[in-house]
Protein 1
Amino acid sequence: MSQDSQFHLNAFLMGVGHHEAAWRHPRTEAHRVLDVAHFQELGRIAERGKLDSVFFADGLAVGPRIKHNTQAIFEPVTLLSAIAVATEHVGLIATASTSYSDPYNLARKFTSLDHISGGRAGWNIVTSAGADEAANFGVDGIPAHSGRYERAEEFVDVTLALWDSWEDGAVVLDPETGVFADPGKVHTIDHDGPRFRVKGPLNSPRSAQGRPLLVQAGSSESGKEFAARYAEAVFTAQRTLEQGQEFYRDLEARVVKHGRNAGDLKVLPGIVPFIADTEEEAKALEQSFTDLISPEYSLRQLSTMLGVDLTKHSLDAPLPPLPPLDEIQGNKSRYQLVKDLAADGSLTVRQLIGLLGGGRGHRTFAGTPEQVADELQTWFEQGAADGFNIMPPYLPGGLDDFVDRVVPILQQRGLFRTEYTATTLRGHYGLTDVGNRFAGAVDEASA
Amino acid sequence: MSQDSQFHLNAFLMGVGHHEAAWRHPRTEAHRVLDVAHFQELGRIAERGKLDSVFFADGLAVGPRIKHNTQAIFEPVTLLSAIAVATEHVGLIATASTSYSDPYNLARKFTSLDHISGGRAGWNIVTSAGADEAANFGVDGIPAHSGRYERAEEFVDVTLALWDSWEDGAVVLDPETGVFADPGKVHTIDHDGPRFRVKGPLNSPRSAQGRPLLVQAGSSESGKEFAARYAEAVFTAQRTLEQGQEFYRDLEARVVKHGRNAGDLKVLPGIVPFIADTEEEAKALEQSFTDLISPEYSLRQLSTMLGVDLTKHSLDAPLPPLPPLDEIQGNKSRYQLVKDLAADGSLTVRQLIGLLGGGRGHRTFAGTPEQVADELQTWFEQGAADGFNIMPPYLPGGLDDFVDRVVPILQQRGLFRTEYTATTLRGHYGLTDVGNRFAGAVDEASA
């Protein structure tokens, strides 16, 4: 949220593409979902386009989608480590859950990626809404929405403290005196809260960008409050300019309410672009993907998303009435989105599936490179975005097309960088250096 | 434990060397402890020597050693991911704790490394004895030795089940039919034990080597029983041939008692080799490292190792009497080793520190390339080893010397491979393919 003259671009990467049928389409090679070199290539393509970052989502279960789901292969941070050493500039963002990990392990893992990449790591904070995920960690049913966010807040507080536990300059590394670290600049955090007790310090020094970037994607009331308090970038699904503007204004007001500057948080709506020489060809390209959607897979996915079993429901009837939002313990943002789409009862389940198939609720857009650029420019200039979460429907081709055909237009219009001017992810997003709560403090206990 | 005609070699890597003063020595560049390219280079050197694997240890705290400790930088699995994509053959083993992580997360992390590396991942199982580690995870004091191993057993049982949850061939990846996975070959594990409840399946398919190799290094009674039951390779600190033979025989008997074949577990004693053209030069090289040891650091480290505060103790007096082993809740193997060394009261603390400085209790050996090769051959042929855990005192030079000067001698003698003949870590160690408990099973629940 800022008056920047240029916007930011993140490439949200998933298997061989975001479209659920991408791996069945002739424009992809399905076996590459298992190939780390494919993902390294995607990182290099993003870097060729001077993109701010790449991002991998994650979930901690295969759920009921196993028959048709190509996504469950790599853990994102290990994957990004392999991409880090194949790239030099692009930021590297991974999802990790606050519900099913420990702050110490998570802080360490992301700091390690930050060291490996020279300060390019980012953490997309999720609270893991799924009952299938809960069952892999000894939790029955879906953990309550409010409890997940309470835990997430304490989790992030501890993680931030651990990331501050080594000050800049704590590493002395002086072979003459034999001093590796200045104990006066390495601090215990002594956190003692309702869910976590963590002494610290972290077992890894501060990284080149101070600490990993905090990213968030929840759009529920709790999610937006959480983002306004902690996040530095927000991924969001907004289907119309008006909805995007409303979300942007709402989040901006919350950020300011929390005592932060509006520019401290960047809002990045998602877009699934189908790009071709003409609008007609682009729409035909999109249709060629839609034609490959498996109704069986989609109904399972929609059932999981809604928490309502639709697998016996007719594809050509409207969606049955859905329970009210406040009864939902799962992913509220996605639930509300489907509820809105189905509100007037005019869409059949089959039509709804087609709409959702491209980007699981994110906006799809089929057009020429100029039309895509126009659309992004409009959202940026009309106060709905600080940048965009680019979700190529197929990979690597869809990212190639965006980088080679859309980015140059954005650069010509002065809307996007022509060279990297920063070395860290934080720098790419134009975020000022983070402070350190311990800077200058004296902490004998950790000496 | 086998009658193999050739032995196995693992390079245990740590910062710029195992000797605690390595980073102060002119043969190293201290700043490289922070440089991922340094570690990628080490992986490539090990591969040049056709070594079976490289290994990184880990701990979940900085403890009291922060002033002089150069080790706390990278989390091993993220680091090995970066090394995986810079190498093609060498195995990649990392320590991870059963006390402070979840089976689902750990199984996923190592499977991800296994996919990234094409089946070269190994897990060194530790139970985390330190009070400083406990304090970072909400646990007061040192967790009881027995409780740690009980948790470790259930943890490994769950992890093995998760690694079996996808059968070989479960991934169909057929674009024509739209089938990614065969649900009949992907299984829930439905584990319900005293410490963990985990439904499964894992959210990642089976890897090229079936599952990561299991490695273990504890030499306590519980540690040896654990190793005999689960481990496929054991790292161990043995200071004399006789002790090595006794350990080997003991472990072999335990392996057989657990119904396994003796050859299912490889015993790899550690050795810290100082290599030079003459024995005299090698000993002078070792002394040049010993001269750089910081007594302040060493006393803190020894105090931590023993759980006895020696920081006010005279360097030139013998060690004070130590409490009996059964009162120790921490690392029993290392404690017993120091107790043995100090048993007759003839060593001063300063001398003990010198002995321990090279490899923290592992055997150091200074000699010519031929002498090092002779020593390894003797241990192998005399029934004390299936291979060796090579711990270069300084890096990369100490590994270069071993690979370029000792390995060719071993190859000439027919004791070590001249080319890789396998593609996986499991293959390098000559371990037969693991089975899968679910192979052929019908599991409708996960369909």
Note: The first strand of chain A starts at residue 8 and ends at 13.
Protein 2
Amino acid sequence: MARSASLLWRNLRVYQIYGANTDVGKTIFTTALCKAARRLYRDELTGYLKPTVPRDADLLSSIYSHLAKAAGSGTSPDGWFFIETAGGVHSPGPSGTSQAELYRPLRCSVLLVGDAKLGGISTTISAFEALTLRGYDVEAVLLFEDDRYRNADYLRTYLADRHRGLPVVSVPAPSPSEAHGSEEDAESMRRYYEETSRSDAVRGLLGHLDGSHSARVARLESLASEGHQRIWWPFTQQKLLSPDKIIAIDTIIINSKGVAPAGVLDGSASWWTQGLGHANSSLTLAAAYASGRYGHVMFAEAIHEPALALAETLIQGMRRGGGGGTHRLSRVFYSDDGSTGVETALKMALRAARTRYGWAVDSKLGIVGLEGAYHGDTIGAMDCADPSAYNEKVEWYEGKGLWFRPPSVICREGKWRVNIPAEFGEAGEIYAESLTDVFDFRAREGRGEHLLYEAHVETVLRHHLDKGRKFGALMMEPVVLGAGGMVLVDPLFQRALVNVVRRSQHLFSPEFVGQPSGNGTDWTGLPVIFDEVFTGLYRLGRFTASSFLGLDADVSVHAKLLTGGLVPLCTTLASESIFRTFSSDDKTDALLHGHSYTAHPVGCQVALESLRQMQNMESSGRWAPFQRGWVGGTDDDGARQQDGAAGNNNRASRSCWSIWSPQTVDWLSRRPSVAGVWALGSVLSIHLESPGGAGYTSTAAVALRDALRATNHGPSQNPWNVHSRVLGNVLYLMGSQTTGQEVVLEIEQLLRRHLS
Amino acid sequence: MARSASLLWRNLRVYQIYGANTDVGKTIFTTALCKAARRLYRDELTGYLKPTVPRDADLLSSIYSHLAKAAGSGTSPDGWFFIETAGGVHSPGPSGTSQAELYRPLRCSVLLVGDAKLGGISTTISAFEALTLRGYDVEAVLLFEDDRYRNADYLRTYLADRHRGLPVVSVPAPSPSEAHGSEEDAESMRRYYEETSRSDAVRGLLGHLDGSHSARVARLESLASEGHQRIWWPFTQQKLLSPDKIIAIDTIIINSKGVAPAGVLDGSASWWTQGLGHANSSLTLAAAYASGRYGHVMFAEAIHEPALALAETLIQGMRRGGGGGTHRLSRVFYSDDGSTGVETALKMALRAARTRYGWAVDSKLGIVGLEGAYHGDTIGAMDCADPSAYNEKVEWYEGKGLWFRPPSVICREGKWRVNIPAEFGEAGEIYAESLTDVFDFRAREGRGEHLLYEAHVETVLRHHLDKGRKFGALMMEPVVLGAGGMVLVDPLFQRALVNVVRRSQHLFSPEFVGQPSGNGTDWTGLPVIFDEVFTGLYRLGRFTASSFLGLDADVSVHAKLLTGGLVPLCTTLASESIFRTFSSDDKTDALLHGHSYTAHPVGCQVALESLRQMQNMESSGRWAPFQRGWVGGTDDDGARQQDGAAGNNNRASRSCWSIWSPQTVDWLSRRPSVAGVWALGSVLSIHLESPGGAGYTSTAAVALRDALRATNHGPSQNPWNVHSRVLGNVLYLMGSQTTGQEVVLEIEQLLRRHLS
């Protein structure tokens, strides 16, 4: 069982003592607890720590090292450790960071010293909540008895109602004279500690903590095996999954090693959702705010601020990030995940095509798409993908499409290549100097590279249409096929496909005589759906993946990074042209689709905060160090960057960058075991040679994945390893949008070590 | 634009002054603000309130009344109002309730007075967070300057980072002598107020508040029309939806009138999700805790505590709540909403049937179900429902089933009737004394009432099977068809259907020769799926709706109330017999289904808290007053209740109860405009006479809905109205699990008034 982070050892009970305020008795309680532990657990170690190191990362790693040594990898005798904080929960630590934030990666069990004075009920509950919303477990609240305010009585009732079994322990305060420091006082305090540490309250508390520590460890140790009995895992052959392979997550997996002793580096960006680091407290507070303000809003015929603001942010972001010049997307439909968002998109597009072309409701409509597509796991979304290991055994799967095998882009032996499949007539490779050149449509279209693509698309479409097939939408993932194998598609081909579809007003319904309104935002040919669930919202370095193609979709779908890895939410954006299709005096002509939690305020508020943070990173130049590595390499690039007036398409086509360095991509591309590699945005995709065939069932990448996972890196007291995912012969690594250069560098070194 | 609750008027800027602690200067700041407002806004009203009324509800309504009078329905001159609280944010109000909780229904804009003393950074941030997680907008933080601690400087940086534009306003503190009360002091304080209220800081603050109040009102007033331009609403014909009909939700809709001045009573339980009241702070804190502890967990091959604990809670709850004696459900698969949960269930069941019966992967498998079924909006879920207004215009819809029109139960003219459709051969009605008698299977099966049902089911099944059709699952909503028209199905029929399907080992595949393992939990005939998304988890008064039938499903689906109206989450439970089907050495035999946010910790933690609260309500007898009305009415019932040893089925069949009184059901059932009525759990379903035909497109219930919505009830200063939803000719009302008797009574009176 691999376990992630936190100050948890079977043989060492570690508590961090937080105060509801300053001057509430933290030191007194800590001292009494130490004394009581020494007396009651004579054969055990009892330790105390009040750490002061200026840098946050050093502070955490020194605490971790100190305790790891005390625990002796679990071989030392049992023991107790108390770590005292300074001031209140949010009082600044040595570096100025709030302590509740600073210590969060350790997620130590907490004893909260409450405030017995007037006002202390409020500060104690507030402190309790500040800790809770950072994921701490408060194991007990301790405070002095006070006959006047009786805060302990109130807190006992209040907290018991809400947090079953949480002890509120009160002891008499030292008399004022006792705490003043003279010799007589010292003797008096000695007596006070003697009595307090022998009191039933303190002894009972230690017994409780001992029990709950054992229970916590036992539960964590059985989590994998209990889960193995109860859980049906997604995308997992459970016969091949023994409990020892299951990762029991006790707390956040961290993906910023800097503040993460003994951590797991989340190399799959938590199934591609992660943008702002796990358990980002701004996202937590956004979720809590919306929960407290709204709870649930029944969204049919209602509106709330986060839903509207998010719709506005997305529409504006798509416009700024779009390269097409037209601004098609103007409507937002909410659903719960990529699958439901794709199904919504599909319903929108098919209806638009069917009504414009006058087809009967029971017409068999297909979609046009790409081979290797993946749009989700509900039946309608599955039917949009070509047959593959994902769907071929699913009973109701019935692929309803025409899928083009796309030319793909990869770096091999230091060269970027576009691989053109045989069916294009002129199979072969196009070479490019750089990834940026692959996206330089002006140059490539100038050389006529798109003509082969357009001719092929037109031929194939005509062939199928001539056979009487009907199509209702073009659906694809712009730039990268994700679950279909982390394939970088030649963007010029995707442009060609869209362009052919859009200019062919009469291709899809020869008898059609109408015209779109001609304002430039109406769909033509077929509605174009971009599934940006994985590729959008900065995963590839830009707000929208469509900007890489210099095209606007008629419908596009956005999820995953939308909520920065917190809660499910999906948005399907559509143009007015699509929207108008459903407008009628008959209510059954409406899009009769919806989920109970449609546009749930928690998700919308979190998404707003997530987008705000990423947009700020973009505008503040946070990614400039990465970008310089990719675009600042040559004089030519420098000159190009100044050429800002040359139009959207051109500018957009230039800024291809990744957090992964071009040097590492180059190095990887020259390994004998590597068939090819590419990097864009936070994604690095390594295609390994696979003698037994590539694809989902290949196991070629498993060895590398296991090596990254098994090896501990970093100093021995502060180890970390990399958790990554494979897709057949492909191992990919994905950072979050906050991943720093030093982390990337370490992982790159690690890759080089394993692939040398 | 109907607007819900909160102290918001265009002409009155109202602020509640909270303190980070006691003795931080709330009164001084409030006084200075009042003085400044009087001076700067000479023609306006400036008011001050420090409310003290013992009962929470009285306190809220007196504040509301006072301010509503001051605002004069928006006709009075503009003004300012400052409401001072006592102590810190969580200090107990007059009744003992924490003030932050107590005043939440008013959701007044907040000015937070921070603490300038040592430790004050911590108490100020904690107080800010306690307010935020209750959905308050903190408009500014005010505190005294202090050269030693400089808390204002720290807070300015800290808060600006996280909350754009939030002003942190500091002013000099009064000198210690000024605050002491002698005559000289009074003069000195007068001078202090004079200076402070003229200071740039305070003047600037008022200007800022004036601007943000105007902006807030303007935004709220444009929310509906802006939304109308940007949002694509679910289940809504937008051509028929003008902005004036859109409800702009500024804050929680409340469904407990007791603490809700000027509120909207949420009569649809927020699309059937609501169980614990909107914005329940225990759910908020649960969400925040999981967010802070985990963020996202990539769930494939991983496990975390809330996912396991929720799985255990559900499995145990189903066992305790199940009436069948066997305990089939033992596995939990997580997804995002009812639709995805149903699709998962379907994939599970079809695979189980296909592999056992040896059918080819491309066999056309149908499901057996009920007419009027509704299982969600993704294509696979839609295909499980018979053709209806919901799906008949959807391009990829292709009903894949055999649907039985079920006998239904309704109360009319004071009598409970089971309506048996003509195709059963002996069409007609069975009468029952009470709803409880309808569920008394021992008695009814003793009278042989099930024989007609079983014979019909067998005949129809054989007919279709003889034609070569193949079926892979029986799927239905136990007891109530929700979206299909809020129909109470005769539970005896559902039992008969399941029993025929289960005992017919060879019916569905005549050539089948194998046997189930015979341990009593294996599926036989066809896997039985119960879609409890709407009917389960106490909506009908019990943990599981299957207990009403005295049957266990092989697969069951749970959502909506699961998370108490906070975030999307769905669970699909399955038996080991179903689970084993997917076990293989080939990873592509696994259930290759999953969503990015599968088992997201926030949802699981919230669900745990939601279930815990509802289970506590059940075990503590919270619903006893309602239950007494239904089962304690006659001597006969009393005698029956003591007969506890008569077996599970029998006991379960007796406890039919509703929050809606049997007297009101009886009264409604005798109205000429009412075709029938039923109530169970928190649901009241009124079927109105509809000359133009019933069904989704009927408008018969719209008039009653509009009447409930348009009328203001309660005192004029404290009005409320009822927001309800219709399904064709059916108007339903749905309480939450916390709705009190006095609220139900008021709504019942209202119904009587409108239907007299």
Note: Chain A has 25 helices and 26 strands.
